[in-house]
Amino acid sequence: MSFQKSGAKSGPETNIEPMIMALPKGRILEEVMPIIRGAGIIPEPDFDNSKSRKLTFDTNHPLIKIIRVRSFDVATFVAFGAAHFGVAGNDVLLEFDYPEIYAPLDLDIGHCRLSVAELESLSIGDDPSRWSHVRVATKYPNLTRKHFAKRGVQAECIKLNGAMELAPSLGLCRRIVDLVSTGNTLKANGLVEIEKIIDITSRFIVNRTAFKIRNDEISEILKNIANRNDVK
Ligand code: PRP
Questions:
Q1: At residue 202, does pLDDT exceed 60?
Q2: Nearest-atom index, ligand 1, CA of 183
Q3: Which residues surround ligand 1 with Cβ inside 6 Å?
Q4: Range of 142's domain?
């Protein structure tokens, strides 16, 4: 698919600034890209070169550039208007709860869940309904506190940015709150899932101000993504 420039070229000679699409790095990107390509947005070849140190990529669309950042940072770039739109999981959206982000479309990818887990040995005879206080390692302190507060449990959260599964066996805490997909990571670290907090999928997200100012262009992209034929 090629895009009409609507009489405008990107670049300093016009007033039309390119729009920035923020995409999450890592495993989820493999699920995101068929959708983006299926909507007719094709990144420059360097995007698929794992050795490239570039962080911003042109696309075949004269007014769309892609940045590739950590999943939590997608939401921050979009919330502050540094990126116009992007893709983020509802785990990240609920954790930050940015009012500036509008999340109109569930992309039906990135399926997983946010769960509480603990060492298998501790789980035998453990009854979560009797907890009054828990200490957990997590990347999601806000979501975790809210979840436990709803049933009157005080959650003390130790913020980690990855490899949460190490925390119980090394005595940092007895429980973790983390993403579970296949369950292999929990199993490999002697942990069992004891309570699901939320189901997760990824959504197309838009900065609310950008959506007002560039409504026609962003609505067109949203429509193309909603009606896409995924390109593997
Ligand atoms: C996520 C999550 C778990 C793992 C779960 O980590 O934090 O560690 O995936 O997946 P599984 O149930 O299929 O084993 P990810 O690999 O995304 O990296 P991270 O630790 O940097 O978040």
A1: yes
A2: 12
A3: 26-27, 162-163, 178-185
A4: 112-199
